[in-house]
Design brief:
Layout lengths: L18 H26 L14 H8 L8 E3 L5 H6 L4 H8 L23 E3 L7 H17 L10 E6 L6 H13 L3 E7 L2 E2 L2 E2 H4 L15 E6 L3 H16 L5 E6 L17 H8 L3 H11 L5 H24 L18
Parallel strand pairs: 1-2, 1-3, 3-4, 4-8, 7-8
Antiparallel strand pairs: 5-6
Helix pairs in contact: 1-2, 1-10, 1-11, 2-8, 4-11, 5-6
Length: 344
């Protein structure tokens, strides 16, 4: 069993959250969970092909960070586990599901599939199949925001970029090189490490000299923070502070969110490497159940309101599948389209 780190303490009593905010967080997390469950069903029914990596268990990270930003204005860079980041960023479930089906109505026109979600409209910079590939791309987005504001004098260019990646990426060269540049240039970026303990089949503790990734920020004179990635309120609080710092010109933050994927690395993974005891330790910390309990306990919602949200989202998911199934395949005549940028 992988040695478990003590999850960072978080005093929920200090949280200032309205009912509307709480229900929005819950709805976003339910959307991610229900969407991924449906993906598993569709994959095993032969509707999706290739590798499909699900996000179940990690919803508090995507929701906590992206909902602390300005969806549709700020930038988000993802990984090959990108469906839920796309949904949190505002990409319609219809477009994400259609992309998974390889249809022309998908957010990447059916060219990207599971690992390459993209939406210029929603400032989603893409999912990236290669480990750590999105880190320098995200830095480029953050650099252009800073350049437009400070050099070109565009005061509206105060966008922040959130760059998501896994614990395995923190051992790659792009991680160190990009964090160095981001610190030197004080780029408005959040480096969000989703430490789910496993890089495919390699346990994190066996792959790195120092398993506490957030401490690596000190090498770059950068703010680094550890957070319980199974607690959306804790993630949101950390992200809000990091976003405020970035928007104020105070530079980047490295956030290590301790989380866990509830399924195997991909839907083709039999998931035999992780122990039963390890899985049970994390299953008991389901972030959705934790938020639901908080909302009810603090009189921000009752069970019927939560069930109503679940019914609403189930309708959204069913609609997304129907849309994807009825959408056309990409036209063969456009095989070479989108290889290069097109004039508007």
């Amino acid at each position: 069993m992988v040695q478990e780190r003590t999850l960072p303490s978080f005093n929920a009593a200090t949280v200032q959250i309205t009912k509307e905010e709480g229900l929005r967080l819950y709805e976003d997390m339910i959307l991610g969970r229900f969407f991924e469950d449906k993906c598993a069903e569709m994959y095993y029914r032969g509707k999706m092909f290739g590798f499909v990596h699900l996000y179940n268990g990690q919803e508090a990270v995507s929701t906590g960070v992206i909902q602390a930003m300005r969806p549709g204005e700020d930038f988000v860079s993802s990984t090959y586990r990108d469906h839920v980041h796309a949904l949190s960023a505002g990409v319609p479930a219809r477009e994400v599901m259609a992309e998974l089906f390889g249809k022309a109505t998908g957010c990447s026109k059916g060219r990207g599939g599971s690992m390459h979600m993209f939406s210029a409209e929603h400032r989603l910079l893409g999912g990236y199949a290669f480990v750590a590939e999105g880190i320098p791309v995200a830095a480029g987005a953050a650099f252009q925001s800073k350049y437009r504001r400070e050099v070109l004098g565009d005061q509206s260019a105060d966008q922040v970029t959130a760059c998501f990646f896994g614990d395995g990426a923190a051992n790659n060269g792009q991680f160190f090189e990009t964090l160095n540049m981001a610190a030197l240039w004080k780029l408005p970026i959040l480096f969000v490490v989703e430490n789910n303990k496993w890089a495919i089949g390699m346990a994190h503790d066996r792959a790195t000299s120092d398993p506490e990734i957030y401490k690596k920020a000190s090498a770059f004179n950068m703010a680094g923070v550890e957070v319980d990635g199974m607690d959306v309120l804790a993630v949101r609080a950390v992200a809000q502070e990091a976003v405020a710092r970035a928007r104020a010109g105070e530079g980047p933050t490295l956030i290590e969110a301790l989380t866990y994927r509830f399924r195997g690395h991909s839907l083709a993974d039999p998931d035999e490497l992780r122990s039963k005891a390890e899985k049970e330790f994390w299953f008991a910390r389901d972030p959705i159940k934790k938020l639901a309990a908080y909302l009810v306990e603090h009189n921000l919602a009752d069970q019927e309101e939560l069930k109503a949200i679940e019914r609403k989202i189930q309708g959204v998911i069913d609609d997304a599948v129907q849309f994807a199934e009825s959408s056309p395949e990409p036209d063969p005549s456009e095989l070479y389209r989108f290889v290069f940028a097109e004039d508007e």
